[in-house]
Amino acid sequence: MDRNSIIGFVLIFLIVVGWMYFEQSQYKPPQKNNKNDTLNNTQIITPKDTQVKTVETLKNQNINSDSLMKISKFGRYFTKFSEGNEKIITIENEVIRAKISSKGGKILRWELKNFKKWDKKTTQLIRDNNGEYSINFVTYDGAKIDSRDLYFNLEENLEDSIFVAKDKSITLTFSIEPELGRKIIRKFTFYNDRYSFDSEIITENMETIIPVNRGYNVVWNSGLSYQEFNSVDESSNAHAMAQLNGNLAELNVDSDEPKESKETGIVDFAGIKTKYFGVAIIPQPWQSFDGTVDLYGTRKKLPNNGMMKIYSISFRVPIKEGVSKRSFKVYLGPLDYDIVSEYGINNMVNLGWKYGIRQIGEYFMLPIFKFIHKFVPNYGVSIIIFSIIMKFLLYPLTIQQMRSAQRMQLLAPELEKIREKYKDDNLKQQQEIMKLYGDYGINPAGGCLPMLLQMPILIALWQLLRSSIDLRQSEFVLWITDLSVPDEIINFGFSILGISHISGLALLMGITMFFQQKLTITDPRQKGLIYIMPVMFTLMFSYFPSGLNLYYFMFNLLSIGQQIYINKYSKNRPTLEDLKKQPKKQSWLQRKMQEAQQIAEAQGKSIPGAKPINKPNNKPRRKK
Question: What pLDDT sits at residue 27?
């Protein structure tokens, strides 16, 4: 062994011995117990020594079984807070009525004064009977603490019921002191006309009880109480979500298996929504929370084929030594776009796919709809006016589609002659039809492009009317008492392929679709669509909100009037001769079909539907 190896081993030996000596000097022997203090006798714990006395030892100290269970659950520091007197404070302002309990500083009830449940009872959003909005953590002695199980001290001397006056606020301060000088404080500040409250969580010198690196969780435990009659429809709109750096991550439970998601980054907010209501926990100051949010969801079946989705969200909040503060704003109310935009949580309103569709609804259609309603209080009439405005705005697209249908109608007799003449030769039939289109300058796909361009607008509109809380419980006329739900007029009493009823406005929409198809479809081979499509759409739209069906009914009605005018009364109605005289412009589709035909014929093949290409006759001439 060389000299360097010997020196290395000696140094390693000295380091190990020195470390063992240092660790021994840090060890503190357990202090003697005070027999008069039963709680402190149960566990002797330091941050570096998490050993607890066994149940047998506790039994020898004559502690009963109930006490043993509490000590096992709450540990050394919090067992004494598992019993106490609960004080419930009712907070009321212009829009909400809430009940806050000193047991955990939790929300027991949250009523929205301006909204009703489907059964006309006041909307109450707290689903869990044990209350909501808690903090959870694990102590050094292994106790898993849920603040909802602990009796806090209410520091203010307040009446049991308080109304928050205009331009005023009220603060509730709940505190718990597991050891002298070590505190957990929860503050709630309410305002006059808001669906939100400010929440502050303060820990003082809790690092010897709660591991600093683990901290605590701010938790919303059990989603929201459902408010609509159709639980399946409400479940389809229920999600948990977290927005990080402006990007929205959603959790949707679409099976009976639970789902969870962990989102890490700068958290703008995390929330849970149903169809028309939501809760959002928003870190304060804005975009200051750089950490992790956990989303969790389950799905369960309800009677009568019902369904409920239950979500929870949890912020992981580290603590510091000494005093550590964390502030949140909690919104708990309607998903009204104008209201939630004030909190920066407008992404909770589902306006469709975020690329293209949402922007159309958010910045184009919603402002128009809101503007109309300022002057027309009835939402049904607003939808009718809205459909007329949309018809004018879409006129450049729809007029091309209708003119294409008009030209196809003019050409229908000639097309029928070709089909009859070449009924036994499909290839020749298609070639002659394409030649006819070319002679009259008609693009057979001319009506498709305007229709495709309309699709993003129609989808955005569909999503807007389907998710708008403004239509909820809004009456229109006759049998339509709620524009946000189907207007059922026929109930079969049984279900066939999931269809159990017919909607009145969906039926009217289907009838208008039938007449619209009759005016535009001229191909005899597509005549079946005139009957099939209206029936299919009537059955499908019978489960859509009546406000949406009202829009489509009016839009179809206006389209029928416009098509009849173009076909019969327009001064610029063309004839076949006019079409033949017009300069011919070959469409992109026709060019591509001709190119494909040239390539195919060069290979000795032909393309169905393409115009035949005249090839030079290369056969040798016959001598006379």
Answer: 37
